[in-house]
Amino acid sequence: MGPRVALFVTCIVDQLFPRVGLAMADVLERIGCEVDFPEAQTCCGQPAFNSGYRAEARDVARHFLSVFEQAEYIVVPSGSCTSMISHHYAELFRKEPEWLDRARAVGSRVVEFSTFLTEVVKVEDVGARLDAVVTYHDSCHALRELSVKSGPRRLLGRVRGLTLKEMDRAEECCGFGGTFSVKFAETSGGMVRTKVDSILRTGAEIVVSIDSSCLMQLQGALARANAPVRTMHLAEVLASR
Amino acid sequence: MPREKILHKVRTALGRSSGQPPAAPPPVRLRIPDVPLDARIESFICALNKLNGKTCVAHSPQEVLDYAAQLCEGKRVVASNSPVLRECGIVELPNVRSNYTDADKLREACAAADIGITSADYALGDTGSLVIIASPREARLISLLPPVHLAIVPRSRILTGLDELFTLLPNPAEQTSSMVLITGPSRTADIEQILVRGVHGPREIHVVVL
Amino acid sequence: MSKAATTEPSKFRQTLEDANLQLAVYTATGRLMEKRREAVAADVLPEYQELRTQAHEIKKHTLDNLDYYLELFEEHVTAHGGKVVYCKDGSEVADFVLRLAKERGARLIVKSKSMTTEEIDLNERLAHHQLESVETDLGEYILQLAHQRPYHIVAPALHLTRYDVANIFTEKLGVENETVIEKQTMIARGVLRQKFLQADIGISGANFLVADSGAVVIVENEGNARLTTSAPRIHIAVAGMEKMIARAQDLPVFLKLLGRSATGQPLTVYTSFLSGPRREGEVDGPEEFYVVLLDNGRTRLLADREKRQSLYCIRCGACLNHCPVYRKVGGHNYPWVYSGPIGAVITPQYMGVGKDPWLPFASSLCGACYEVCPVKINIPKLLLDLRSEVTKFKAKERGGWAERMVFRLWAWVMRHPRIYEMMGSMAAAFFPEGEKPGWLRSVPSFMNIGPLKGWLSQRDLPRPASKSFRQHWRSRRKGGR
Ligand code: SF4
Fold first, then answer.
1. Most CB atoms closer than 10 Å: which of A67, C135, C296, C388?
2. Given an 8 Å threshold on Cβ–Cβ distance, is C283 in contact with B176?
3. How many domains are contained in chain C?
4. Digit-coded pLDDT (tens) for B180-203
5. Domain range enclosing B61
6. Is the ipTM of this complex over 0.90?
7. Which residue's alpha carbon is nearest to atom 3 within ligand 1?
8. CA of B31 relative to ligand 1 center, distance in Å
């Protein structure tokens, strides 16, 4: 029996892309984890934190901590939300020692999905099959705050039928940036179009990432450009058979 | 007094009081790799060639003189007061002027010269740099105003790199008002990032290792 | 747009729509990124990360004890026959230069590249008193002729093409139209060579001030800074006091990082270590040597323990080259001479967060700047701190209440899972999957406002799922899986 994991699916997956959460649950169950979904969960608080509303972010963070305090592992289909909890909660609770301790304790058990597979349970082959040429987008927070770089690629490497074609600008930001995408819509739009060009140059049919928010930005821009490329979360790729 | 005011503001900002000694600084980080002389010379030449510098290894003062004579033929040349140049006989070449002690005269001569000849106090093997320390022997403008710079470097002066230089000279200010590191010919890439050599300083640099 | 807005200034559009400019900036910064990457690669510089840490530590130590090092620096400069002048702002610097020029009968000043003098508009201030000061760095010279501000802290004319330069030279210098870059460079060399030989005063900046030596260190490629500091009778270095480092022996760490981070050069062509006027017996060099130490708000930045690190900056420009926002909006859309990520961090601190409140928000927080910063300034974190300061400032000024209410309400909803779920279902009901599945290209006009409008202006919109994850989960558990 694998470890017990609590899913934190993130608000964006819950409301917009539930199939990503379901795929993640499938993969985790397939490798023998006992999967739990604490129903009181909502959001990690990042939108408020990134917009400069610390008090509001703190309120939501406290809620998150109370919901997940008991969990052994908290697995998240997002590098950005993982980093919010494991890195930025410390800043939020800088002046509240008691909450800071709780945030540290929970933060140490929060793991981004691909990292959970490659570093915690150490499984790279989950028995997936997907006949497609894909390219991988490094989401910024996973890459730079959590140092996730080779793990997802190793996982993709074990998917039968799949070919990974790297794009020339894999590490460049897609331009999402939370509220940045709407506050600085034109700049963000320019950034994602540059990224889309890089994706199209690979000739891949699918862009894979470990963050649904980046994929929302990418899919939105690909759709707008009528480009024949679709997006898939890594969990969806790994759940394919 | 702005001085007192500003220092006071700095202290207030830092929460320090006047005369308070600083905390211990981080230890100095200087690492000198063990590279034999031949390898240092080779690395120096290789690095400088990459920057489009011309190099030559001379085995005697006569070879140095030959190189200089050939380069200087028919040109107006200013040489520094370095003993190395004198020993090689460079200052005796017909078109070479040297022995300047007056700044204005030197400047005029340099502004009109085609070639400036200097020695170098040190050279850095890893980057291909010359180190020239201003002194009665070496002026600043000879390596700067003429479009071609020729430097004669005794081989024993080739160090591994910056770390060794600053180990030998923990505080260059104690002996000079100016120490300059010259790494290749003057260059710019300010227009469309296209490399152009010789924008303000020399477009050509020749180094003879003796 | 209201003055307190934290959204995109409309002036961005012109840059974003200028295809030639976009290509020029993207290519130029891309090339600099590539060069840096090669220069710090593990096989050529295995100690790169260690150097970054060391550089950060030295800057931290020096600035934490800056008053001590200022005095030490001054002591050494004075001992070598130079003079240190403290100035609180640009007008004090200009006053000092003007007074000195008058006393010495100086008429012409040559200047080498210095962001600090750009910051205080020194040229304009001097020109105002009929004192000519000529920029001698090729890029800066072109910009001075064109009356433009630097586009980039390292490559000031990054946005101009050879054709732009040809026009500027023809118009301002009266030369034939010349579009060959090499020849353009030689035209500038000719004009500026005469200026160097005539000038009475040379004004330089400083990349580093070395406390234990009283030395000013300048790095450059062209040789114009060497000429500026060697040819005229008087040398004035104008530097922000944060340029201080404790010891000459700390220099190798910084020199190894600076050139590589900026242009991928292991060392720039010239590194000048200058300490005082020409000494007894030395043949040439300036007879007078001044170091102007500028405050201009730096003491305010020092006072904030966390943000103090933004003063560690060595102006390598790497964060600009790697910033996807800078690469889109370019250097002239930032409110001050410092552009890019470091500009977004220091400008609000110098000018006050209320002046251009959008600035800290102009970032996707991708962290590329922090990743490449040679002195490890945590720029994304500082931007986040500044965002929080902006919202606090707005609350105090009673502005931005609508956004604040939205976030309050949002936070309340997020603490009430049932209400959160109910709101989600309501949203889903608005966008029935029915006739047209897939992504939405538009929404009814009454909804096309605020964030939705922003999103849809650039990309298609995902529909809220008809069944949220939690609803799926419940049926899955009931179904016994
Ligand atoms: S903040 Fe860092 S990367 Fe940016 S210019 Fe300064 S030193 Fe360079």
1. C135
2. no
3. 2
4. 999 999 999 999 999 999 999 999
5. 32-209
6. yes
7. C373
8. 25
